[in-house]
Amino acid sequence: MGARRAWRAWRAGAMVGLAALAALALVGTGLAGTAQAAYPGQDGLIAFVRGGNIYTIEPSGSGLTRLTSDGHDSGPRWSPDGQQIAYLDRGNLWIMSASGHDQTQITRAAPEYTDARPSWSPNGRYLAFVRTRQGQQSGYLTRYNTVTGGFATFSVPYHSEAPTVRQVKVTARPAPVAWGWAATGSQFGSFILFEGSGRPFCRAHYFCLDAYGRPHQDQYRNGFPSAEWQTKKPVRITDPDWFPDQPQFDTDVLTSQEHCSGASCTHSGIHLQVLSSLIVPGAYEAVYSPVGRNIAYVRDVRGRPEIYVGFNASSPDGAPLTAGSQPDWQPLPLA
């Protein structure tokens, strides 16, 4: 009981400290006390996976284009400017242009180390992903710098040390992550959502969706993660995606719910907000469109995944788009 009380106190202090740090940092940028503006653009193509290859398609269903062809690709993620796609090939991280050209390999450690579905930082400079050693159930939350080509492992203080001298790597399940510029109250900061692994943030017999926060996107040390959303096994919450307009980090996240037995999981549906009612039973891998009015998600139809597009996130009865999975929506500037 004492350990749990201490953990709660540390977490509360950590989040208060993060809010203070965020406020201090944002004052210097002129953003303190202001709301994050809605995305000033329009919805573009939807990238997705079919048969181990990456495709793009218009939300209307026209313009199907195959970008890769070796049958070992997954996890496409659009950059914030809509000009690049990060993806995985045989467990390694790659980047290519929106048209499928200039395919560039970023990591080369697979199969000894494999990377999970990445997420771009809001400013487009960094990619966050989970790097996992072969045979391990969890890995480390990692950052790639697209400008310098360097890698860094996100870290937290050892227990409650401050100032932080000793650092502990952030452990996570090899699952998709989501990076957003989100609010804690009236202040904004850089937050990464990931599936936690191990104590003190994830209790035994629980699945945890953790939030790792820092005032700036370029920082990767001394952050404060906390298991904001915990579900008792066998219920699992996964596939986070931030609402694109002024997200509150503890509510405005689209997630999938699964029911797991051993290594096998079945899809229960998707939540429009964290742990709210299920809005599309059986759906999973849901993502917001860049302007936040639409969602894309996946449902299994006659044993195969089909992508649907819902044209109202609050009433998401969608229309089938195409066979495939792992959708992600391209942000485009206004015409």
Describe this structure in words.
It is a single chain. With 335 residues, the protein is mainly beta. It has one domain: Neuraminidase (6 Propeller). The chain has one helix spanning 2-29, and strands at 41-50, 53-57, 65-66, 73-78, 84-89, 92-97, 104-105, 113-115, 119-120, 126-133, 139-145, 151-153, 155-157, 167-169, 171-172, 178-184, 187-195, 206-214, 224-232, 235-242, 253-261, 264-271, 278-281, 284-288, 295-301, 304-310, 319-323, 325-333. Strand 24 (284-288) and strand 25 (295-301) form a beta hairpin.
The CATH topology label is: Neuraminidase
The tally of helices reads 1
Largest sheet: 6 strands, antiparallel
Low-pLDDT residue intervals, each spanning 5 or more residues: 1-37
Q: State Rg.
A: 19 Å
User: What is the beta-strand fraction?
Assistant: over 45%
CATH C-level name: Mainly Beta
Order of helices and strands: HEEEEEEEEEEEEEEEEEEEEEEEEEEEE
Helix content: under 10%
**How many domains, in number, for the residues?**
1
Secondary structure class reads mainly beta
Report the mean per-residue pLDDT as an integer.
Answer: 86
CATH architecture heading: 6 Propeller
CATH superfamily annotation: TolB, C-terminal domain
Distance separating the two termini:
58 Å
Shape verdict = globular
Could you tell me the number of beta strands? Answer: 28
